[in-house]
Amino acid sequence: MSGTAPLRRAGLVGPALVTVLVLVGVPLCIMVWVSLLGRGTTIGVDWQSVPSLANYARLIWEEDFDGTLLFNPTYLSILWRSVWQAAATTAICVLVGLPVALWMASLPRGLRNVVILLVTIPFWTNLLVRNYAWLIILREDGAVSWAVNALWPFGPVQLLYNDTAILIGLVYSFLPFMILPLYAVFEKFDWRLLEAAYDLGANRWRALRRVIIPLAMPGIIAGSMLVFIPSLGSFVTAALLGGGKSMMMGNLIQMQFGQSRNWPFGAAISVVLLALMMLVLMGIALWKKRAEQST
Amino acid sequence: MNSAPSAIAVRSVSKSFGRGDAMVRVLSDVSVEIGVREFFTLLGPSGCGKTTLLRLIAGFEELDSGDILIDGVRVDHLPPFRRPVNTVFQSYALFPHLTVAQNVAFALELQDLPRAEVRRRAGEALEMVRMGALAARKPAELSGGQQQRVALARALAPRPKVLLLDEPLSALDLKLRKEMQIELKQLQAEAGITFVFVTHDQEEALTLSDRIAVMQGGRILQLGTPREIYERPAHRFVADFIGEINLLEGQVSGHGKVRLDCGAEISAGAGQAAGARVTVAIRPERARLVRGGVLQAEVTHVAYLGTATIMQLRLADGGPFLLRAAADDLPAIGGRVQVDLPSDALQVFAA
Amino acid sequence: MNLRRLPLTREIGLGVLVYLYVPVVVLIVYSFNANRTATVWTEFSLDWYRKILANPSIREATWNSLVLAAAAGIGSTLLALAAALGTKTRFRGRGLVEAVLNAPLILPEVVVAVATLMLFVAIGVELGMAAMIPAHIAFCIPFAFLPIKARLDGMNPSLEEAAQDLYANRLITFRRVTLPLLWPGILAGFTLAFVTSLDDFLTSFFLSGPGSTTLPVYIFSAIRAGITPEINAISTIMLIVSVALVVTSFLFGRMRR
């Protein structure tokens, strides 16, 4: 009987595992291969070309007419913007999410469930639609734009199509991902620890810094991962609110598979994006391991 | 009380929780003065308001009315972190992310003391509870008794004027609890500060306290030394709650006479009007087996304890009576005995 | 002074709720505005809803989205159900298997989408439904897997043992005991997978071919062409459908606990 168990297990797990491996794992491998190839003429890739790192080099240098390599900041600045925007989004989400989660945990049970539902709903509504809503609010002939321009004395302000608009959209898209894990921490929080901190002479600020935040760290880390990673790879927000002027890596990748028809370069940027993500995940794993060892 | 300020003065304090129909009055018009270096115990059954009173002193709850003074200074408006008291929590509330040493140093660091001073005083506090060897451990790696000691050290380290202890021994097993009782008493002498101790364990209260306040239903029923509380309980509730006692119902039959429901007539109840229902109380060790005693009883159970014998008796009306006698005094079960009730051992409460 | 409530948390909390809902409310309100320039409110009207109902390309896109979401929902739920049953007991590599199944949750969608595009082009799969359905099934698997797995983990193992003790064979045990108990989890998993597929834009954007445009892809290109009240109306419908599905699935999951 027990001899057939592994077989039955393989039969149950196999189909899902194969589906994910074939439709996600294999494509990622192909992508790494394509990132080493040259650009094709009919489709986006020349399968026969000799593998090289030229596509990665293109992210940093461009070739002049006479073949000399010149430093080209265009792509690096997009890379930098992506990382910076994702980091800023994460930071804002922590700063805003922490008090919100604390507030939620202090609510009476009935009201608390309503607020949890209210925070969860955007989680499941269309990302495109939610970013589009900001497009309506921030656009030139919108009420917000009108009000800001009426109050701002130094000439017309453009609210859309800049880094700030993207930041607003990213925070809007991913804030619930930060609030919910933080709330999960505070829901189980032993509030007597806070009383103990006050009792030992900590004022509210110091109790927050020395007791609440250290104990909320697992939630902060989980939330930061859930916010940083999708922000880094986001496409829709910059496409709608950045208006082609402010691009992120996702948009640059899409461009190579759209207008530019340069699949190998797009694949190279994708690999860089994946690598950046891995780096962040590994950093967090390392940090966690060290934190666990010290306990 | 003398003219020096008491360590803690609680004046006409009232406190309710909830609103409207769900409102519960937890403390009503409680006043008490606690002296400097006193080991003061708030004793009562759960829900009597003792913990709420302690939390009001610590500053975790807000007063509805009245005021609280610590060392002669009003503290009603002060948050807990500005009050010169520290608390040992029932659950210890040790910070799980900090080591034992860091827990004990917590308050000292907040006082911005120099680092060497912090380390020295935290070390001292840990030595005081004999936990110096485990300073690098996290709370989760300690036993209940060890956590208890760390919680004590943490609360004592900032040298508070008053230490508040909220049922600190309730989570320990009996043997450890007895050990810690002795240690607490020694610690108090060593630290030379006031202890305010909350417990529902009357034996613990009698053992440890200089004075006890017995609380019930949000009021202090009696305030006194353990001896006063035990020997001269002011209320039927106090008599019943502290130690073992026989409560006999009866009616005042004339001047200084009470006819008990079991039929016997005794001399008691001098201040009561004739015809009033009363309860007569006597401790088991104060009643005596005497030929010709006023109570007729039948022996139903005998327990030999070595130092004494506990006898369970049945009175004429079927009511139980407990009697504690010298160890060699062993009547047979089912035998008939007579019990004498010395009038100086009797307490009479109006029903 | 409530010591547990830290200052400003309530204000920030209420502010965040406003921040989360004002844009959505604005969007919904403007979808009922008679005026084409969405800046000023003129009067209530259902014109835009009438217009989108009459628009054949929107109808086609909606149909495509529903077919795709149904296929992806059913496909991923079946695969996830089997996988959850297979990972019920501990075995070597179980953590790895679960990590692979959940990988689509953390991988950047834009990367997976273009990678899948390259795979399909390389092996000659024509873009359109034939490409979108398998891709959607793959990334919906974790959304179906997690609720089913949670339900299964919360199940009392002695129930299955009791059934077998009462002479039910493995199949009967599954049909008469496991499946009925698992049902709320399966339904929740299916709903989440369905909604995830319905809301997906990026994967469909890269893999849809002519004639197989989905609603989000249609909305995206419409926005690119210019903001119109019709987009507000479709967006409103999409929002309401998603919210309704998710809320019912949550209520259902809670009811049967």
Automatic annotation (TrEMBL), chain A:
Q: Where in the cell is it found?
A: Cell membrane
Name of the protein in its database record = ABC transporter permease
**Which Pfam families did the record assign?**
BPD_transp_1
Q: Which residues cross the membrane?
A: 12-36, 83-103, 115-137, 165-186, 207-229, 265-287
Of which family is this protein a member? Belongs to the binding-protein-dependent transport system permease family. CysTW subfamily.
Q: Which PROSITE patterns match?
A: ABC_TM1
Cellular compartments per GO CC? plasma membrane
Q: Does the keyword Magnesium apply?
A: no
TrEMBL record, chain B:
* Catalysed conversion reaction: ATP + H2O + polyamine-[polyamine-binding protein]Side 1 = ADP + phosphate + polyamineSide 2 + [polyamine-binding protein]Side 1
GO molecular function terms here? ABC-type polyamine transporter activity; ATP binding; ATP hydrolysis activity
SMART domains xrefs: AAA (SM00382)
Q: Choose any GO biological process term that the UniProt entry carries and state it.
A: putrescine transport
The record's annotation in InterPro entries points to: AAA+_ATPase, ABC_SmlMolc_Importer, ABC_transporter-like_ATP-bd, ABC_transporter-like_CS, Mo/tungstate-bd_C_term_dom, NA-bd_OB-fold, P-loop_NTPase, PotA-like
- Report if keyword Signal is assigned: no
Q: Which UniProt keywords apply?
A: ATP-binding, Cell membrane, Membrane, Nucleotide-binding, Translocase, Transport
UniProt cross-references to Pfam families, sorted A to Z: ABC_tran (PF00005), TOBE_2 (PF08402)
**The protein's Enzyme Commission number:** 7.6.2.11
The UniProt family comment states:
Belongs to the ABC transporter superfamily. Spermidine/putrescine importer (TC 3.A.1.11.1) family.
> Per its record, how is this protein called by name?
Spermidine/putrescine import ATP-binding protein PotA
Native organism: Aliigemmobacter aestuarii
Upper taxonomic classification of the species? Bacteria, Pseudomonadati, Pseudomonadota, Alphaproteobacteria, Rhodobacterales
Query: What is this protein's gene name?
Result: potA
Automatic annotation (TrEMBL), chain C:
Which Gene Ontology BP terms does the record give?
transmembrane transport
- Which stretches are transmembrane? 12-32, 66-87, 99-123, 129-148, 177-198, 231-252
What SUPFAM superfamilies does the entry give? MetI-like
Q: Which residues form the ABC transmembrane type-1 domain?
A: 62-252
Q: Name one Pfam family in it.
A: BPD_transp_1
Record's Gene Ontology CC terms? plasma membrane
Q: Where in the cell is it found?
A: Cell inner membrane; Cell membrane
The annotated topology with respect to the bilayer is:
Multi-pass membrane protein
Which of UniProt's keywords are assigned here? Cell inner membrane, Cell membrane, Membrane, Transmembrane, Transmembrane helix, Transport
Family recorded in the similarity comment: Belongs to the binding-protein-dependent transport system permease family. CysTW subfamily.
Stated role:
Required for the activity of the bacterial periplasmic transport system of putrescine and spermidine.
What is the protein name for this chain?
Answer: Spermidine/putrescine transport system permease protein PotC
Gene source species: Aliigemmobacter aestuarii
